[in-house]
Design a protein that fits this description.
- This protein is mainly α.
- The chain is 53% helix and 7% strand.
- It contains 18 helices and 8 strands.
- The strands form 3 sheets. Strands 1-2-3 form a 3-stranded antiparallel sheet, with helices on one face. A 3-stranded antiparallel sheet has the order 4-5-6. The protein has a two-stranded antiparallel ribbon with strand order 7-8.
- A hairpin with a 5-residue loop joins strand 7 and strand 8.
- The longest helix has 46 residues.
- The radius of gyration is 31 Å and the shape is elongated.
Length: 523
């Protein structure tokens, strides 16, 4: 039975890799894949335990913050809108800020956090005694003072005699003291006219309108990006990627820090931190670049919302500064002819579909997932479409690809007989689905990637699906006759008049190039 590896083997580096909670872990593969696996796995378990231990204080902090925020949500639902209720709400807001600042500043241990929060919350519920709404909701016309007094007397009598308050008395608690906030729903009395409040309540203010802390800034930033995705301006995947990199900066800087802390000094410290992560092998230069890019985006967003007065000088293009890093160059890594034949030999019919379309047409997963039935003409043996990634660009070419006989055969096997999409997953869903949850967290289900991963393991060919596209483009570029068709094959937006000319006029030459590619790579 084949071993189910929990780590990823990087053949070109003879190392094991694993991503865990945002950490890119790397382990020695000395001695080869099989011989080194157990040692690498033990080292991964050790590093995993270290990372989890480091996260415990953060998890405790998140738990405390969630408790405080739940209480703030309860107040307008439980209490009448009065001065006391508003004061309690604002007191819990201040408590949230105070506790998180002490946690972020290292003034509290994880053992102290929960106890301190519990004591302060209990103190607040004793200090403030807002009037609960109960089942009577809010009143437009308040009852007379005599009616209020009568109901108050009945309430107090019932509380003293109730089993619950007898238990409170035995525990040394005052039966007539205000109940904890979580129990406030049992209180059902009318508000005193002197407690009536006017103007907007603090809980009615827009969350995104108040950008005070870096967490506020991140929340508003993601709401803005999500709105752009819903309007079709950017993809859901892009929102997910932006959130990951922006949140990495906020987590590093401190979620409860004031937005005013966005200074050149902070940004230069973050760049130093990112550069160290590159040196330690925790980040690639491409990921590091994205980290810095989204940190700058947050600052520009803060400026657009007037949360800061000016951009930090180190990221202000008007000051002639470049807040960036140099990217490592990556040479294309085409899949060899022998590797392609090995993949085809081990592939199921569905995996052959993905492989052949990916190589024949230079498609990535999203292109296959989005491919429509009306874009495939099997009698003519063509696919005609704009690439999914550039379909919004008015100058993006509509490319007609000539399909190889092998590609036509698998297309016939799996082409849907109804609906808009050409191919669906085995469960009837779209091959790639993306969504954002209420918190802006990105979720993606990719049937193509999962299927390809199984093929890689079965064939022992360590090649990502995207390398099919690189393979086709590299082969074309190496042929003097066909090099001019590389941009057309990739469906890039034309950058010159010549590119547009070839895209529209030399279709026969392009199809000849695709036939030659078939002969060279799969026959």
């Amino acid at each position: 039975m084949a071993r189910d590896y929990k780590l990823t083997w990087i053949e070109s580096e003879q190392r094991w890799r694993k991503m865990y909670r945002g950490h890119r872990l790397s382990f020695s593969g000395e001695g080869g894949k099989k011989a080194s696996y157990l040692a690498a796995k033990r080292e991964f378990e050790r590093r995993k335990a270290e990372i989890d231990a480091q996260r415990q204080p953060e998890q405790q902090r998140e738990k405390v913050i969630a408790t405080l925020q739940d209480l703030m949500v309860q107040i307008p639902a439980v209490y009448h809108d009065g001065h006391a209720a508003r004061s309690l709400y604002q007191a819990i807001e201040r408590l949230e800020l105070e506790i998180t600042e002490q946690i972020d500043g290292g003034k509290l241990s994880k053992e102290q956090i929960a106890g301190l929060a519990d004591r302060r919350i209990a103190g607040l519920t004793r200090t403030y005694a807002p009037i609960a709404k109960g089942t009577t909701a809010r009143f437009r016309d308040l009852p007379s003072q005599e009616e209020i007094d009568r109901q108050e007397r009945e309430r107090l009598a019932s509380r003293i005699d109730s089993p619950e308050n007898q238990e409170r008395a035995r525990a040394g608690l005052d039966p007539l003291s205000p109940p904890p906030l979580s129990d406030a729903r049992i209180v059902e009395i009318f508000p005193h006219p002197s407690d009536a409040a006017s103007g907007p309540a603090p809980w009615e203010a827009s969350v995104t309108a108040r950008i005070d802390t870096l967490q506020d800034l991140l929340d508003a930033f993601i709401v803005d990006k999500t709105g752009s995705a819903k309007a079709g301006q950017i993809s859901l995947g892009r929102v997910g990627t932006v959130k990951i990199h922006a949140e990495a900066f906020i987590e590093w800087a401190g979620r409860r820090k004031k937005v005013a802390s966005l200074t050149s000094s902070l940004f230069m410290e973050y760049r130093h931190h990112v550069m160290k992560c590159i040196a330690d092998g925790k980040l690639s230069t491409y990921t590091a670049r994205d980290r810095l890019t989204e940190a700058k985006s947050l600052a520009r967003f803060a400026l657009s919302r007037e949360a800061i007065d000016k951009l930090p000088q180190c990221i202000d293009p008007a000051m002639g500064q470049k807040y960036s890093i140099s990217l490592e160059t990556k040479d294309p890594e085409p899949i060899t002819r022998d590797e392609i034949k090995t993949l085809l030999h081990h592939a199921t019919d569905r995996q052959r579909l993905y492989l052949l379309i990916g190589l024949n047409c230079g498609f990535q997963g999203a292109d296959i997932s989005d491919l429509r039935r009306d874009e495939i003409d099997l009698p003519r043996g063509t696919i005609t479409r704009k690439r999914s990634k550039t379909k919004q660009h008015k100058n993006a070419p509509v490319v007609t690809y000539k399909l190889w006989p092998e590609t036509i055969a698998v297309c016939k096997r799996f082409l849907e007989s109804s609906g808009d999409l050409a191919f669906l997953a085995e469960n009837g869903s779209q091959l790639i689905t993306k969504r954002l949850d209420a918190k802006g967290k990105y979720a993606k289900a990719d049937s193509i990637d999962s299927s390809w991963d199984r093929l890689r393991k079965k064939s022992s060919v360590d090649a990502s699906f995207t390398r099919l596209r690189k393979t086709g483009a590299t082969w074309l570029n190496q042929q003097e006759r066909f090099a001019r068709f590389v941009q057309l094959y990739l469906a890039h937006v034309p950058s010159s008049v010549a590119d547009r000319h070839y895209a529209g006029a030399d279709l026969a030459g392009f199809h000849e190039a695709l036939d030659a590619m078939r002969d060279a790579l799969i026959t």
